[in-house]
Amino acid sequence: MERSAAGTRLLDCMRRAADAGLSRGSAGNASMRCAAGMWITPSGIEPQVMQATDTVTLDLQGRVLEGTLRPSSEWPMHAAIYREHPDALAIVHCHSRHATALACCGRAIPAFHYMVAVAGGESIRCAPYALFGSTELATHALRALEGRRACLLANHGQLALGATPEAALALAIEVEELAAQYVAALAAGEPRLLDAAQMAAVVARFADYGPGRGDQPVQSGSRSSCDGRIV
């Protein structure tokens, strides 16, 4: 894939994230892994005026290889994830309302609903606060993502990984919905949490869940979201 094609997909991802209410203004960013490192959206440009050609190509040490604009300030976090998570091919970072509200309280999303397992485990962790764009934030995010495909970032927002920008965005939308449900549950009382065994069973079920053909079950070891997209 060339930068122009990658830019088109990333631009579409950012515009869909804005339309879904996941980010406002120029907040948020998205990237895709490439042979040279990654393609990432530029810094400080709203999706409505962003062009596919604004995408920047970086190596995983942050050197600009192609593009004339400044890359997203969160490139160190994206690069760190690509270095440590070889299965991550795309990343979406956004400031969605409910996920950010929980992150501003330093709250993880616990196993109040079985769909929390869509992020890969029994909770969606909240990484400690660090300055945006810093290597410290990248380190915190990596720890929160151990065994997970999404996390919250304290006093900041949320982060989701996927095999494609579309899959990463779908997961970010799911995290925001879970965050909204958890906020509502907290307002109603103290949510009942599923235990570790119950969540382990859900995670195992997700491993082969999806609308595959009856005579061709999903291959063992594949990871899928709740609706069958491989993420």
Explained architecture:
This protein is of the alpha+beta class and 231 residues long. It has one domain (3-194): 3-Layer(aba) Sandwich (L-fuculose-1-phosphate Aldolase). Helix content is 35%, strand content 14%. It contains six helices and eight strands, in the order αββββαβαβαββαα. The chain has helices spanning 3-19, 75-84, 97-104, 135-144, 165-188, 196-206, and strands at residues 29-34, 37-40, 56-58, 64-66, 90-94, 126-127, 150-153, 157-162. The chain has an eight-stranded mixed β-sheet with strand order 4-3-2-1-5-8-7-6, with helices on both faces. Helix 1 packs parallel to helix 5 (165-188) and helix 2 crosses helix 4. The relative contact order is 0.14.
pLDDT average, as an integer? 90
The computed structural class is alpha+beta
Number of DSSP-assigned strands: 8
H-E order: HEEEEHEHEHEEHH
Please identify the top-level CATH class.
Alpha Beta
